[in-house]
Amino acid sequence: MDGGRSKFILGPGEIRKMKKEYWLERWRQEEIGFHQSEINSYLRQYWPELQIAPGKQIFVPFCGKSRDMIWLREQNLSVLGVELSPLAVEAFFKENGYSPRHTVGEKFDQWDADGIRILCGDFFDLKKNDLAEMGAVYDRASLIALPPETRRAYADHLLRILPPAIPILLVTLDYPQSEMSGPPFAVSTAEVEALYGKHADIRLLTKLDVLAENSRFQQRGVSQLQESIFLLTTLAA
User: Fold this and answer.
1) 164 is in which domain, residue-wise?
2) Is the N or C terminus of the chain more exposed, i.e. has fewer CB atoms within 10 Å?
3) How confident is the model at residue 6, as a pLDDT?
4) Does residue 6 belong to any structural domain of this protein?
5) Is 79 inside any structural domain?
6) Percentage of the chain with pLDDT > 70?
7) What is the DSSP annotation of the chain?
8) Is residue 206, in this structure, part of any structural domain at all?
9) For residue 45, is pLDDT > 90?
């Protein structure tokens, strides 16, 4: 007997493990259509909204091998990424010509080169001291990578470990979720407000109809696609 718990019902820990295995397998199979080879145009356009001083540190959760980290470094910032897949981390440094220092830790392996540091491990294992020096957050691919049952835990954990009064540049997608299974998942403005509204000021910078320039979504039968860029600022202590 299992104490009344059906063998077909998964607990939160088991669900998280399944999601981790899903992303690790995506990188093993090189199924990374979500990766952008160019610097994100919204990052360039709305970067000044963060008002982060040169020399500060910026956090990029679920960073993959994003070249946005190179652009951020070129703005005279130090960059901290966290990424589950070691294949993604290795690819980032190799493809961009870096020779990183690699150290092994209890929860995270650390890769470090030229002001860019990536912690390879589970985002949910991050602690406050890991982000104590943070000046801003850039989330282009984290929230929309997570299914609904995980997004609340992600937002709560991020808010818990960030210092107060930190700006977050957040990029989301919204489309009829019934028309396509994620990732990327649909995240509405209402959900952003529900996830962050009690602990951060929220400003919608822009919302754009972007279906015409996203053939991948058209091919999968999506009839509407909007991209939204938010500036969130965690509340002061």
Assistant:
1) 12-28+40-234
2) N
3) 36
4) no
5) yes
6) 84
7) --TT--TT---HHHHHHHHHHHHHHHHHTT--TT--SS--HHHHHHGGGG-PPTT-EEEEET-TT-THHHHHHHTT-EEEEEES-HHHHHHHHHHTT---EEEE-SS-EEEEETTEEEEES-GGG--GGGGTTEEEEEESSSGGGS-HHHHHHHHHHHHHHSPSS-EEEEEEEE--GGG---SSPP--HHHHHHHHTTTEEEEEEEEEE-GGG-HHHHHTT-S--EEEEEEEEEPP-
8) yes
9) yes
Whether the per-residue pLDDT at 14 is higher than 50: the answer is no
Into how many domains does the chain fold? 1
Q: Tell whether 60 is covered by a domain.
A: yes
**pLDDT tens, 191-235?**
999 999 999 999 999 999 999 999 989 999 999 999 999 999 999
